[in-house]
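Hi there,

I know you've been waiting on this one. I reran it after we fixed the sequence typo, so this is the corrected version. Both the input and the resulting structure follow.
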Amino acid sequence: MFPMEKETLLKNLGTRIREIRNKMDISPKDLAHSIGKDQQSIQRLEAGNINPTYYYLYEIADGLEVDLEVLIKRDSANSNE
């Protein structure tokens, strides 16, 4: 298995968060408000422009009402296994 580049991993994470949020019909502003963050922070995360802490991911998962594992699961299509 070859590690993915950091940039690719962060973009994939952001895309996954945005997809889950959209499926739940939650705006970035509403998600941010529910976890005590600002909308720009959520937008930067979804764009893959920040490397979130474990606790920040935990807060996002809580705000989206999903398990943390759902956010960080690597897609088999993106894996080099």
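Quick highlight: The longest helix spans residues 6-23.

Best,
R. S.
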